[in-house]
C-alpha cells in the first residue's frame, strides 16, 4: 500500500509564497507520474500540476507562471512551489501518485 504525506500548508497573504512537500512510501519503487490537486469548498477536485519520472511537467492554466512542481532529491518526493498566491488558490491540496494513491491533504489559505 502506498502512503503519501503532504506538508507545508498554511496561511499566506496575497502575493506571498508557500512550498508544499509530498513524500511517498510503501509499495512503490519509482513513480512514473506524481502530482498535486486541490479542492476548494463547494468545488470539484482539480488538477494543479503533474511531473513525470523524466521531468516533464503539466500545469493547470490557472497556475502557470506562478507555481512550479519539481522532483525532490529523495526518490518519490515532489514539491510544489507556489508564488504570487491569490485568494482563489485557497483550497485543500492533495498529493497524488500514479493517479490512484492520495494523501490526506494540506490546507492552504490565502488572504487578501
* Distance between the amino and carboxyl termini: 40 Å
Q: How much of the residues is beta strand, in percent?
A: over 45%
| Low-confidence residue ranges | none
Number of strands: 11
Q: Could you describe the largest sheet, including whether it forms a barrel?
A: 7 strands, mixed
Judging from the principal axes of the Cα atoms, what is the shape?
Answer: globular
Q: What gyration radius follows from the Cα positions, in whole Å?
A: 13 Å
What structural category characterises the helix and strand content?
mainly beta
Helix content: under 10%
- Name the helix and strand elements from N-terminus to C-terminus, one letter apiece: EEEEEEEEEEE
Number of helices: 0
Oligomerization: single chain
The average pLDDT score comes to 94
Can you offer a commentary on this structure?
- It is built from no helices and eleven strands.
- With 112 residues, the chain is mainly beta.
- Strands 2, 4, 5, 6, 9, 10 and 11 form a seven-stranded mixed β-sheet that branches. The chain has a four-stranded antiparallel β-sheet with strand order 1-3-8-7, with no helix packed on it.
- The radius of gyration is 13 Å and the shape is globular.
Amino acid at each position: 500500500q502506498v502512503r503519501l504525506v503532504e506538508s507545508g500548508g498554511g496561511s499566506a497573504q496575497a502575493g506571498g509564497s508557500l512550498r508544499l512537500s509530498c513524500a511517498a512510501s510503501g509499495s512503490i519503487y519509482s513513480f512514473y507520474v506524481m502530482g498535486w490537486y486541490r479542492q476548494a469548498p463547494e468545488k470539484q477536485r482539480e488538477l494543479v500540476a503533474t511531473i513525470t519520472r523524466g521531468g516533464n511537467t503539466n500545469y493547470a492554466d490557472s497556475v502557470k507562471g506562478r507555481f512550479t512542481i519539481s522532483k525532490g532529491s529523495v526518490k518519490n518526493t515532489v514539491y510544489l512551489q507556489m508564488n504570487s498566491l491569490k485568494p482563489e488558490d485557497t483550497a485543500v491540496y492533495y498529493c497524488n501518485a500514479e493517479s490512484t494513491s492520495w494523501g490526506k491533504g494540506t490546507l492552504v489559505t490565502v488572504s487578501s
